[in-house]
Design goal:
The protein is α/β, with parallel strands linked by helices. The chain folds into 2 domains: 26-35 and 44-346, Thiamin diphosphate (ThDP)-binding fold, Pyr/PP domains (Rossmann fold); 354-390. The longest helix is centred in the N-terminal third of the chain and has 26 residues, at 49-74. Strand 5 and strand 6 form a beta hairpin. The chain has 12 helices and 8 strands.
Amino acid sequence: MHDRNHLANVGMTHEVNVITNGLLDIPMLQMLAEDGTPHKEATLPELDEKTAKDILHAMQYVRVLDERMIGAQRQGRISFYLACTGEEAATTASAAALKPQDMIMSQYREQGALAYRGYTTEQFMNQMFSNEKDPNKGRQMPIHYGDKALNFMTISSPLGTQIPQASGYAYGQKMEGTDAVTICYFGEGAASEGDFHAGLNMAAVLNCPVIFFCRNNGYAISTPASEQFAGDGIASRGIGYGVKTIRVDGNDVMAVYAATQTAREIAVKEQCPVLIEAMTYRLAAHSTSDDPTGYRSREEEEKWRAKDPIARMKAWMTAQGWFDEEANAKVVEKMREDVLNELKRVEKVDVPVIDEIIEDVYDTPPWHLKAQLKELKEHISKYPEHYPKTSGRLNRG
């Protein structure tokens, strides 16, 4: 019978023994050097040509999407955007190592995971423009995607909310006995939220098949990691909670793919959580509301541009005979054209009928919400110049 006494396996000492952070010394898994050549000691995961090309395609697509949508925000066409430039390998290669039935719970910088699963340009645009085809009915900020068919949980604005939710969802998967896990993405800044600690502890105690995937990109908006915590990153916290932990080079597609593949295998077979800390860098601003020149140097950014995950993947694929620069340039240019054309088309789609704003919470909207809706319509009618897209949409039909 299992001994539930928490002191049963504790070693003894008879002298004051101060434990230091340095005793952990958690290594970082890296398989490809910055120039794309494999390390001699590395055992690369089995990655077929199609999967490699699909990963690269999704990585390049989201970089193009980032460029176009940052431009659209600057032009006032959308209100807000968050780019994942520089972190494409972490979000895309990890998703590629999962199964379609696995649930993805995202923070807000995981366009790569969603694009890899097949989310279309039209779907991205409908959400960002909050139009009548947006499944969120225009109630979310841009970049708050979600898709039930792709097992991608809708994003929430508050940091960390998805972490305990992922533990709970994974517990449900365990109870159902399905061959599925939940992966939960978050940044190292979100790991300072209370939800992180509650979520990890819950998963560890209840043995939930969840992969906690931390994108440690060095900054929580303008706060560098050195001012966020004194410990050895986020990986050491996983160990502290009794969670199996992997630290990986987040700009190395092969390493991220192998780490996530291993984490999923452990989570399914052993029915337990795994934490992955991907060491990467946010090359773009935190969001379109941020100016990174105020808190980091150009020299620092250029240092990390040399570690570009897309360039590294291209170099490795070239060595395999799977990549042609001339053909790829045409593919990327076609992406730019398609994204721009879809942007121009979708921004003309009307907004949702305003009556829908009080639906989907109660079976029948209560009187006070109906009264507020009436006041809102009167306000918009009085100041129509501030609400040009609502013309003809104040009522159903």
